[in-house]
Amino acid sequence: MTNESLSTSYATPERMYKLVLAGDAAVGKSSFILRLCKNKFHSSLNATLGVDFQVKNLKVDSKTIALQLWDTAGQERFRSIAKSYFRRVDGVLLLYDVTCESSFVNIRDWMSTIEESSQKKVPIMLCGNKCDLRDSYLREGRKVVSRESGQRLAKHYDALFIETSAKDGKHIEDACKELARILTSLENEEIEQSGLKLEKKDREKKKRPCCPS
Question: Residue 93 sits in which domain range?
Answer without folding.
Answer: 15-189
